Amino acid sequence: MRDTQLLFETVTVGNITLDNRVGVAPMTRTSATSEGLATEQMLSYYTSFARGGFGLIITEGIYPDEQYSQGYLNQPGIANGEQAQAWKRVVNSVHQAGAKIVAQLMHAGALSQGNRFVKETIGPSVVQPKGEQMEFYGGKGPFQTPREATKKEITEVIHGFVNAAKRAKEAGFDGVEIHGANGYILDQFLTDYTNERTDEYGGSTENRVRLLTEVSKSVREAVGQDFTVGIRISQGKVNDYEHKWAGKEKDAEIIFGQLGQAGLDFIHVTEYEAWQPAFPEGEGTVATDSAFGDGGPSLAALAKKYGNVPVIANGHLEDPEKAKEIIEKGEADVITLGKGALANHDWVNKVKNGEPLAKFNPEKVLSPDAKIKDFEA
Fold it and tell me: What backbone phi and psi angles, to 5 degrees, belong to 58?
């Protein structure tokens, strides 16, 4: 068996001590009730990962407020007491099965394609999102053009994250992850072509990362030092997979540097392949698999270098050798799996025991009538 022992060491992230360095990545499942309540199905789904040995589970994106944050119909929320109460059962079940669970707080902004509270969307600027809505999650056709968020609405966005984080703490979650990635509202503020503002939230990279740091600082202040708070960051988006930061490593230095000083306990970076260079040299460069770092540092390595907080890496790390290597090289402290976890709810136990891993089968796992199954680990 390959020497993957490193993956199964305990590690501390913020206030959480994990049994191992392997987590489940947040994945949109749209399996809550129409009112945004976590269901029995969801309890079984998350618990099965805990039984399968994962040390950390990060939930699907949970909408934080009853205004513009909901992104999908049947998405779970934590915008009120009833929703928080429904999550409490899931949290307790995961804890009983031996894992830690972190709530990912997500405001969809301009990428919302199903919101039961409002019909319009808001974003940093009046810029129609690229691409088309995801039919698998109930959308169809182009995204609507958002309205530019007012200063008052920006303050309300911050308050939404803060209040949701407090509810998550009360519900027993081990921490929260602020969703600053994948094209949702915080990433819309960070992204040059979706943010055309001329106030303190637009223009320079320092200004565009401002809302992310304000949310991070406000959440930290609200929940205190004894509750783990992290943020997820990406370059690519659900509607623009190949986006790269124009300023390359200089942007990474500003973004991760600012976030590293915002009171966060971890930065969770996601790329298509976590080990590849964040900024491949030249147009059309084909990055190699042969060695980490060929062509420049990975996004995880840059987060580690400039953020100076623990880093979680995500992106096609279901091969235990790849997972081990990114930790071994000091580029990440924890890795998270998406498709690899869906295919193997017991990935950790299998790798520990030297058992073969199942390949991801989208038809089995992602058919519209099986967005979540009662998996048994």
Answer: -105, 125
* Residues paired with residue 148 on neighbouring β-strands, in sequence order: 123
Domain ranges for the chain, please list them: 5-368
DSSP per residue over 215-238, as a string?
HHHHHHHHH-TTSEEEEEEESSBT
Q: Among 183, 218, 189, which residue's Cα sits nearest to residue 206?
A: 189
DSSP 199: S
Cβ count near 43 (within 10 Å) = 19
Q: How many residues make up the chain in this entry? A: 377
- The rounded distance, in Å, linking the Cα atoms of 163 and 276 is 37
Q: Which of 46, 63, 137, 184 does the annotation list as catalytic?
A: 184
How far lies 294's CA from each of 20, 142, 279, 287, 306, in Å? Answer: 28, 38, 11, 7, 20
Amino acid letter at 19? D
For every one of its 377 residues, what pLDDT tens digit does the chain have, with 9 covering 90 and above?
Answer: 468 899 999 999 999 999 999 999 999 999 999 999 999 999 999 999 999 999 999 999 999 999 999 999 999 999 999 999 999 999 999 999 999 999 999 999 999 999 999 999 999 999 999 999 999 899 999 999 999 999 999 999 999 999 999 999 999 999 999 999 999 999 999 999 999 999 999 999 999 999 999 999 999 999 999 999 999 999 999 999 999 999 999 999 999 999 999 999 999 999 999 999 999 985 433 444 434 446 899 999 999 999 999 999 999 999 999 999 999 999 999 999 999 999 999 999 999 999 999 999 877 655 444 444 433 33
Say how many CA atoms lie within 13 Å of 130 toward its Cβ.
Answer: 14
Strands (E), the chain: 11-13, 16-18, 22-24, 56-62, 100-105, 122-123, 147-148, 175-179, 228-234, 266-270, 311-314, 334-337
Q: Distance between CA atoms of 195 and 231, rounded to whole angstroms?
A: 20
- Which CATH architecture best describes the domain 5-368? Alpha-Beta Barrel (3.20)
3-state secondary structure of 17: strand
Give which of 28, 14, 26 is closest to 178, Cα–Cα: 26
Phi, psi (deg, nearest 5) at residue 262: -100, 10
CA-to-CA distance for 151 and 154, rounded, in angstroms? Answer: 5
Instruction: Identify the bridge partners of residue 100 per DSSP, sorted by sequence position.
Output: 56
Catalytic: 184? yes
